[in-house]
């Protein structure tokens, strides 16, 4: 056991900034994640990326795909997890049914917006039922951000 000590954070909040630029959020849900092995330790060290992650149904279950959780450095070789494995989302049957019906409608998708550790120490992911933005919507959002930035500069 070496003298190397890894820093584990208690407050973890990883956001998917790209999602708010690409999608209009209709409704948000909080879901648990089924994790294996050393994944929770990597999450607590904030070694997670939601950049390319998306959610889909496999049978009656919803999974999150392409969420990158870096292998835990102190986990050894055989204990460690696969970085981009599919992970099951833990939602109620009512929520799953509602999401399934909406996804079957044209243009809706489910994207993860943020990953956090709740006060009980469990990893949770906030997912959003979303609809893709058109190019002109993205331009309008950027224009509004620029205007707000200019106004805030004027105040000081």
Automatic annotation (TrEMBL):
Its function, per the record, reads: Required for rescue of stalled ribosomes mediated by trans-translation. Binds to transfer-messenger RNA (tmRNA), required for stable association of tmRNA with ribosomes. tmRNA and SmpB together mimic tRNA shape, replacing the anticodon stem-loop with SmpB. tmRNA is encoded by the ssrA gene; the 2 termini fold to resemble tRNA(Ala) and it encodes a 'tag peptide', a short internal open reading frame. During trans-translation Ala-aminoacylated tmRNA acts like a tRNA, entering the A-site of stalled ribosomes, displacing the stalled mRNA.
Protein name stated in the entry: SsrA-binding protein
Report the Pfam families cross-referenced here: SmpB (PF01668)
Q: Report any one BP term from Gene Ontology.
A: trans-translation
According to its UniProt record, where is this protein located?
Answer: Cytoplasm
Q: Which GO terms describe its molecular function?
A: RNA binding
Kindly list the GO CC terms recorded for this protein: cytosol
Tell me its family.
Belongs to the SmpB family.
Q: Write down the InterPro entries for this protein, in alphabetical order.
A: SmpB, SsrA-bd_prot, SsrA-bd_prot_CS
Under the heading Gene3D superfamilies, the entry gives: 2.40.280.10
Q: What's the domain of life for this entry?
A: Bacteria
Where is it chiefly localized?
cytoplasm
Keywords (alphabetical) are: Cytoplasm, RNA-binding
Which HAMAP family does the protein's record reference?
SmpB
Record has Cytoplasm as a keyword: yes
Q: Does the keyword Zinc apply?
A: no
């Amino acid at each position: 056991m070496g003298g190397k000590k890894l820093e584990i954070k208690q407050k973890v909040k990883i956001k998917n900034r790209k999602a708010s630029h690409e999608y209009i959020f209709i409704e948000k849900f909080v879901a648990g994640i089924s994790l294996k092995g050393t994944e929770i330790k990597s999450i607590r060290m904030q070694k997670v990326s939601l950049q390319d992650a998306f959610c889909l149904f496999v049978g009656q279950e919803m999974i999150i795909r392409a969420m990158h959780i870096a292998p835990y450095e102190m986990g050894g070789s055989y204990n460690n997890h696969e970085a981009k494995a599919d992970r099951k989302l833990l939602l109620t049957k009512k929520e799953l049914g509602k999401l399934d019906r909406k996804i079957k409608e044209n243009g809706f998708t489910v994207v993860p917006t943020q990953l956090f550790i709740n006060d009980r120490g469990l990893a949770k992911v906030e997912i959003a039922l979303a609809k893709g933005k058109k190019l002109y919507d993205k331009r309008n959002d950027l224009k509004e951000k620029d205007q707000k930035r200019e106004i805030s500069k004027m105040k000081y």
